[in-house]
Design a protein that fits this description.
With 229 residues, the chain is an alpha/beta fold. The chain contains eight helices and seven strands, in the order ααβββααβαβαββαα.
Length: 229
């Protein structure tokens, strides 16, 4: 047992433990930056989206079925993860930059939020140039709600998104629920269907505005009976 009295034995043991811990940390960091542990989104169906109950944000709110938003002219809809999030504000601003072209096409731009806290929606409005509605049951974030918890803060893509938004001059706060991931939908009129469904993979994973516009151009507005005559 004389080797136990050898200082080099303990030095080697501590070095091995440290190297093992460093290797485990490196492996964990690598895995966190892959898509292995990300929950896979379940694609929504038109029938599912049509029956979602939404509320207006007026003093006397009106509850209505979501299909009213796109039934006649289609729509572009953003499911906002958190209005106070500076990454969500960045995406909202990019979608709003499409509004002049969407207006030319006769296609409305909308957003839904999960909750109405303090002045969060009002503070979000300068970044988003469309009407905003409340989705209390968080149905637009389903059918299978996906969350990104603290793993998001070790993902390099998330940090890249942070710096991009900060450099773009966007800022925000920590009010409200922000772990349930959002998305963007382009819906055709009537039964035309879902033309684009972007599900946020990680914090700041924003939709490509060009893809939104291309999908919007495929929308075929419904014609009334009088127009058909």
């Amino acid at each position: 047992m004389s080797f136990l009295q050898d200082p080099s034995f303990f030095t080697m043991g501590m070095w091995s433990i440290g190297a093992g811990a460093l290797g485990a940390a490196a492996l964990a960091l690598w895995l966190a930056n892959t898509d292995i542990f990300l929950s896979k989104p379940q694609q929504a169906t038109l029938e599912y989206l049509e029956e979602i109950d939404l509320k207006t944000l007026e003093k006397e709110p009106r509850t209505f079925k979501a299909k009213e938003l796109w039934e006649k002219n289609g729509a572009v809809i953003m499911a906002v993860r958190r209005p106070g999030c500076f990454l969500c504000r960045e995406e909202a601003a990019e979608l709003s930059s499409l509004k002049p072209k969407l207006d030319e096409l006769g296609i409305p731009l909308y957003a839904v939020v999960k909750e109405q806290i303090k002045t969060e929606v009002e503070d979000f409005q300068p970044f988003f140039k469309g009407k905003i509605f409340l989705d209390e049951k968080k149905m637009f974030y389903g059918p299978q709600r996906r969350k990104m918890m603290f793993m998001g803060f070790v993902r390099l893509g998330v940090w890249n998104n942070f710096f991009r938004a900060r450099n773009g001059g966007f800022s925000g706060n920590l009010e409200g629920e922000g772990f349930i991931l959002g998305g963007v939908f382009v819906l055709g009129s009537g039964k035309q269907g879902i033309l684009l469904e972007h599900r946020e993979k990680e914090f700041g994973d924003k939709v490509n505005p060009f893809s939104v516009l291309e999908a919007a151009k495929k929308i075929k507005p419904q014609t009334s009976a009088s127009e058909k005559k």
